[in-house]
Amino acid sequence: MTKFALSFLKDESGATAIEYGLIAGLIAIVIIGALTTLGTNVMNKFNSVASNLT
Q1: What is the pLDDT of residue 36?
Q2: Could you tell me the CA-to-CA distances from 22 to 10, 19, 51 in Å, in that order?
Q3: For residue 1, which of 9, 44, 25, 43 has the smallest C-alpha distance?
Q4: What CA–CA distance (Å, rounded) separates 33 from 25?
Q5: Rounded CA separation 27/49 (Å)
Q6: What is the distance between the alpha carbons of residues 20 and 14, in angstroms, rounded to a whole number?
Q7: Least reliable range by pLDDT among 1-5, 9-13, 36-40
Q8: What 3-state DSSP class applies to 12?
Q9: Is it the case that residue 54 has pLDDT exceeding 90?
Q10: CA 29 vs CA 9, 26, 33, 37, 40: distances in Å
């Protein structure tokens, strides 16, 4: 039982997949935040142009 516990604690095979998942999640959060801000700015600009045309 001790050998199993030690081999389980030393096993790092799933750590890489978890790290890649966390990195991908953080990148997705940054992209969503940037696109939301950009979308709001573009919408405000279009509304400004539309109000100046009428």
Answers
A1: 96
A2: 21, 5, 43
A3: 9
A4: 12
A5: 33
A6: 10
A7: 9-13
A8: coil
A9: no
A10: 31, 5, 6, 12, 17
For 1, the token pair is 């039982």
Q: How far apart are CA 9 and CA 14, in angstroms?
A: 12
The residue behind tokens 């039982």 is: 1
Report how far residue 41's alpha carbon sits from residue 1's, in angstroms, rounded to the nearest whole number: 61
- State the amino acid at position 28 in one-letter form: A
Query: What is the C-alpha to C-alpha distance for residues 53 and 40, in angstroms, rounded to an integer?
Result: 20
Of 38, 19, 39, the closest CA to residue 27 belongs to: 19
* Matching residue, tokens 């100046």: 52
| Amino acid letter, 31 | I
Angle, alpha carbons 8-9-13 (nearest 5°): 70
